[in-house]
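Table S2 (continued). Query chain:
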Amino acid sequence: MTDRSSQERRVKLVAALREWGDVQHLAAAFTPGGEAGIDMLTWCQDGARLFQDAVSLGADVVILDPRLTNFALEDVQRLYHYQERPIVTIAALPPEPGQWLERMTAAGALGHVQLPLTEEGVRRLVGIIHTAVQKALQERASPSYIPQLAPEAAQVIATQGWQRAVVAVWAAKGGVGKTTVAENIAVLLGVVGGRKTALVDLNMAGGNVHIHLGLKPEKNIFSLASRYEFRKDMQAGDVQAHMLPYRGGLWVLVGVPRQHMAGASCFMGEEGEMGKRFTIALLDLLRQMFDFVIVDLGQDLNHKMHLAALRAADLVLVVVNPEMAGLLDTHEVLEALFEHVQLDKSRFRLVVNRFHPDAGISRREIVQVLGLPEIGVVPEAGTQVTASLNARKPLALAHSSPVSDGLAQVASSIFPPLAQIWRQRGILGRRKGLLDRVLDALGT
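Corresponding output:
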């Protein structure tokens, strides 16, 4: 009986193995045009040649013995994120694998087979290869695919100026999209940009970050603050233990999961001084632990934790909508912050959210009303934002759109190399049509 895959797109394979006997098993099973639907292209014994051989010969998959001379683990990711197509790695594990399975899986291998190869092992390998290749193509075709940092971008990061920063995201009134802006900036920096990033939900009026990102609230800022109140001390290990991983380099400190907790003594004790000291200690530690700290703040500046975060931040993003009454309210609050609280105006920047050219007010007028420089503009998106929140999928990881482009512009002003990474992601996205046709050929 002819395998279904032989009638569809054939998979091309490079064997990177040490033993000739294992190579012979593969060569016998994966002959050009054979029933397995897999064509073996070549055999490589030098890890230094693996990437170039796989790329130049048009391979879809490599079967790799990690003990190969000159092999580097990072080549697994280089192959997978190759610009033209994903090249999948299947680990060929030695008889005594030790930690190789864990290491190869962590490096990005999408399956494994045990050495020495047998006829039964090769039969299993057929299914593993086809499944892994389909999975890789589906991910590459997905609009949420995040490409590996290009070498050129890595060089920019290494040589050009970007600074670690604590960034507070604040609005003078609710409902302007502040939390959505904060979440997506954090995702862009930590997931797309690959920087170690903390997203802190410090909205003491009730945080929703964990809901939007689909995280459980068991570990949260309340339990961390309670520990600080009891011990009068905070260590990096305490903070890390209360944070949740999201994706890539992004970690999240969930806010108060219940509104009544915001009034607890760990936040409001000593007329709010306890919460103020906690906030200062927390941000001081996070500054040392992460490249970027994005703080989603509540609007109430009578709350000492909110004000303490504004003082501690290197950059404050003021989120506004193109609506005159709200702009005038924001102007009044900003005047009080600069004149009476004496916050440094030079650290404040505008993010104009939900902008539409037909709103009856121009970007220039918004800047003139508030007297602050604009750092970015996010266009009106209709139901797109609501849909992303309900799906618990940030816009920065969804389909490319003017909204996600606007958010990327804001994040790039904080981390300039992100602009190149975002452009590269767009180029790969435009190849989606070709990848869809490949997936159709594979019957997915």
